[in-house]
Amino acid sequence: MTTLYTSDHEWLHIEGDVATIGITDYGAIAARRRRVRRTAQVGRSLKKAEAAAVVESVKAASDVYAPISGEVVEVNEALAAEPALVNSDAGGKAWFFKLKIADKGELGGLMDEAAYAAHTA
């Protein structure tokens, strides 16, 4: 498994042709007390940079964008039951959705762990 990051604090765990996507701990902490309000539907095709989920905090709601293009093949039903999970395990159990990757070339513009650490320093 390879993990990549966006400058907007999303992570992608890449396994074969599927990417599991969520927001980083840094992204979750930045807006304190975040809750996932809505996420993409299975079967939906997303283009890179298209709004795919909504995360809300006490003060505002913000979109989570698809970091790459692909088809949603699974959503995290646990977030519907426990939306605050993003605060306790943003980098793990609080993943949002899984995409079947449409173009692996889009992965080239993402950061590895060292680059992301430098980005957030």
- Give the tally of β-strands: 9
Oligomer: single chain
Major beta sheet, specifics?
6 strands, antiparallel
Shape: globular
Distance between the termini: 25 Å
* Low-pLDDT stretches: none
Element string (H = helix, E = strand)? EEEHEEEEEHHEH
Query: What is the arithmetic mean of pLDDT?
Result: 88
Number of helices: 4
Strand content: 35-45%
Class of secondary structure makeup? alpha+beta
- Computed over alpha carbons, the radius of gyration is 13 Å
Helix content: 10-25%
Entry summary:
This protein has 121 residues and is an alpha+beta fold. Helices cover 19% and strands 37% of the residues. The radius of gyration is 13 Å and the shape is globular.
Overview of this protein structure:
With 121 residues, this protein is of the alpha+beta class. Helix content is 19%, strand content 37%. It is built from four helices and nine strands, in the order βββαβββββααβα. The strands form two sheets. A six-stranded antiparallel beta sheet has the order 1-2-3-9-8-5. A hairpin with a 2-residue loop joins β2 (10-15) and β3. 32% of the residues are buried. The model has no long low-confidence stretch (mean pLDDT 88).
